[in-house]
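Please fill in the sequence for the structure shown.

STRUCTURE ENCODING:
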């Protein structure tokens, strides 16, 4: 992280702020001390959702996007946000004070008590919905809440859309998390088509001038210096102590006096550049002039943020920067914020896997466990890596398939049936071509055309392999072979065979056609 220190409860018992969470799909272990309150986090979400008329899954997805449902014992984030719902008190965002006014609860309780904090988050979300004029029918449609979620971010324009897109990604992909004490919080995957309104034109589309795969969102000019006073010789690894969109917004805030060159998102490894490589970001005190800073979404005490996708994306960026500027790829020149001279920060912390990261920077890789040349039918009694892939996908999307052990047992069959029912497929518990296609394509639905690249293209390539019954190479690059596969799929499903993967093509794939 950069060098800035980071009436409606009606007698309901509160979950203590020591309640913490880690994503099962990452670590499989709960973190922190068990709660001593009598109210579970699921109850807190359900009660807050009912009291303020906010969809329960939306509320949970906002909280997960902000903190992975970890209240961090009431400690503030980088931009002075608190609790599971990240209620903020800083010069440009006063959602903490707003929550206090709406609920009648004290700011102290809203900061430290998880149940009260979730109630406050629901109240703030509802207030944004009311300000936008959402009526009862619209509030029952989760897609109509997109502008309210964007406002909850405290950001504006493209950055607020980036925030809302992340929340709707979690709704599309599903999520599951285990809180201390073993309670599990689920959001099952579903097709989403958010009503973005004017924000539909606010997507971040400008590419980085220095690193082609990255987006470009400029930091406020008060938060960096033009040029450099020293030779560039190191890369500094940071952890944001906040969310991806929140960090980008904070670096655009002139009062923050902090920035970094790049920010990396946890869920999919998306990279945004905010300061040009030739300029000096304010991120590491005495090392500012001689280094490039890379912020990683998350919190140092919660390893669930450090996904394999983020490690790989960040390592690819670091490799590129080292090669471009002649920086040695070793631990003397790729360092943590805590290792920069004169710094008092601890990030990236003990949960950052330096050994793995440096192996990736050095060029080693590995199979993803989801990509196969053909997807064969899996059913009760099946075993092997494709069963593991089914279990992994189901668990990631909030359907409890049990351990990803490669054995198709009763828990996996029940999860498959639940997924099939949700997608309108025959709930026979067997994973054939249609269920494979729907499982592999589940998630966000960005428009993809020739020249696109990244994880969404890989997801498309896997689902086309299942749908067409022939191998479509999974390389993350939308080239001629992928274009042909898309057109073949579109023509055989009665779609416009234009080679562009838009809402209609994604909808067909996600329904298993």
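FILLED IN BY: designer on duty
SEQUENCE:
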């Amino acid at each position: 992280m950069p060098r800035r220190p980071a009436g409606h409860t009606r007698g309901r018992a509160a979950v203590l702020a020591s309640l913490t969470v880690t994503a099962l799909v990452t670590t499989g272990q709960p973190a922190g001390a068990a709660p001593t309150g009598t109210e579970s986090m699921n109850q807190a979400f359900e009660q807050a959702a009912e009291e303020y008329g906010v969809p329960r899954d939306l509320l949970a997805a906002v909280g997960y996007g902000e903190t992975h449902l970890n209240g961090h014992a009431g400690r503030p984030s980088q931009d002075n946000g608190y609790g599971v719902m990240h209620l903020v008190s800083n010069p440009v965002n006063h959602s903490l004070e707003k929550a206090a006014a709406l609920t009648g609860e004290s700011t102290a309780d809203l900061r430290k008590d998880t149940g009260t904090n979730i109630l406050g988050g629901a109240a703030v979300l509802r207030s944004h919905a009311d300000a936008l004029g959402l009526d009862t029918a619209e509030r029952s449609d989760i897609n109509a809440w997109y502008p309210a979620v964007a406002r909850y971010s405290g950001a504006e324009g493209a950055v607020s859309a980036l925030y809302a897109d992340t929340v709707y990604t979690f709704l599309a992909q599903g999520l599951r998390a285990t809180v201390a004490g073993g309670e599990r919080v689920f959001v099952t995957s579903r097709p989403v088509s958010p009503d973005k309104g004017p924000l539909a034109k606010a997507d971040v589309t400008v590419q980085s001038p220095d690193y082609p795969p990255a987006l470009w969102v400029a930091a406020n000019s008060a938060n960096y210096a033009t040029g450099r006073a020293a030779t560039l010789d190191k890369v500094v690894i940071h952890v944001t102590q906040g969310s991806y969109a929140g960090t980008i917004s904070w670096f655009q805030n002139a009062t923050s006096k902090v920035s970094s060159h790049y920010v990396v998102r946890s869920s999919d490894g998306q990279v945004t550049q905010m300061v040009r490589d030739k300029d000096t970001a304010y991120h590491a005190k005495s090392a500012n002039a001689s280094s490039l800073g890379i912020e990683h979404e998350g919190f140092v005490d919660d390893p669930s943020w450090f996904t394999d996708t983020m490690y790989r994306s960040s390592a690819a960026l670091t490799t590129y920067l080292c090669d471009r500027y002649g920086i040695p790829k070793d631990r003397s020149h790729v360092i943590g914020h805590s290792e920069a001279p004169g710094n008092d920060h601890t990030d990236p912390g003990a949960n950052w896997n330096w050994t793995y990261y440096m192996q990736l920077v050095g060029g080693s890789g590995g199979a993803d466990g989801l990509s196969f040349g053909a997807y064969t039918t899996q059913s009760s009694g099946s075993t092997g890596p494709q069963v593991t892939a089914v279990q992994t996908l189901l668990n990631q999307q909030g359907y409890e398939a049990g351990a990803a052990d490669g054995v198709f047992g009763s828990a996996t069959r029940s999860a498959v049936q639940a997924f099939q029912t949700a997608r309108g497929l025959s709930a026979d518990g067997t994973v054939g071509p249609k269920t494979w296609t729907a499982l592999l394509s589940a998630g966000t639905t960005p428009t993809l055309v020739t020249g696109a690249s990244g994880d969404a293209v890989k997801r498309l390539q896997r689902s086309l392999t299942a749908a067409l019954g022939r191998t479509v190479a999974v390389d993350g690059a939308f080239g001629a072979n992928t274009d042909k596969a898309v057109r073949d799929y579109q023509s055989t499903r009665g779609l416009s065979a234009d080679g562009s993967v838009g809402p209609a093509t994604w909808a067909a794939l996600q329904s298993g056609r």
